[in-house]
Amino acid sequence: MLRSFLLLIFSLFTLSCTKEKPENTDGKLKVGLVFDVGGRGDKSFNDAAYKGLEKAKSELGIEFEYIEPGPGADREAALRQFSARKDISLILGIGFIFTDEITKIAQEFPNKKFACVDYTVDPSRKIPENLLALVFKEEEGSFLVGAIAGITTKTNKIGFVGGMESPLIRKFLVSYEAGAKYVNPDCIILSGYAGVTGDAFKNPSKGKELALSQYNQGADIIYHASGITGLGVFEAARMTNKLAIGVDLDQSDEAPGLVLTSMIKLVDVAVFETIKQVKDGNFSGGKVETFGLKSGGVDYVYNEKNKNLISEDARKKVEEIRKKITEGYITIPVR
199 and 77 share a domain? Predict the structure, then answer.
């Protein structure tokens, strides 16, 4: 009798210890986001992600917290900090540099949901079932802004400034060059990277130095894919009164009247839609979700701020190219 009573007490104790507590006591979905190098205020990639968080808060009623990590192990520590908390259901890593850390931590915390913007897909590595890889067809948008630059240039020489030298940023360059040469085979493309580590995305001085060098060599338009480093490119454009092309967000205001266009990458849409999936109970990990021209995930800016810089002929030609890309008639190189 005593033995049975003790077993009953033990069973009740075990159940009370293992019972899952509500993830958020107020019933709201809570999201933790870890920014890429540069953090908020980059007027580009990270700010686009934050815009998605704000929209989810406004339209879906979620709560969120974010961390701006330093280099190296700080990224893993930040992801781990959110993963260990019961009140946070979804953890987002912003940038390809998170790929290894978020894959590892998703495996360690199988009951949490994770998503990574610009996840580096490796066919030899399985994506954990609780991790969603969010990728963009940057090559499609870069091809279009390359075509605009190739048509617009008066010197027949254009430039590119990249942040960290890496396969992802090289994809921006290669497709930009291909777009320019598609419309202008004789166009020359100058290029340079700010560095080989994540810090290359937060070095405006280096961006300015690279851009001034390219402008001085005859480039009259420079496209950047370099985060905060790109602010130096816009400074160089203002100093020389030459054109620049922004990235991720509409960056027209960084050099008013001198930003030919921007290759917009709707990171805010990817962040918002992922949060909505979790909110609606439709989240599905272990796969890649791709955003391109056809789905509205990438595009180029054409509005009141820059329409006077893009000729009618250029606009018409680029829209024809868009149609060919979405219908599969143009194959864009990525490396």
Answer: no
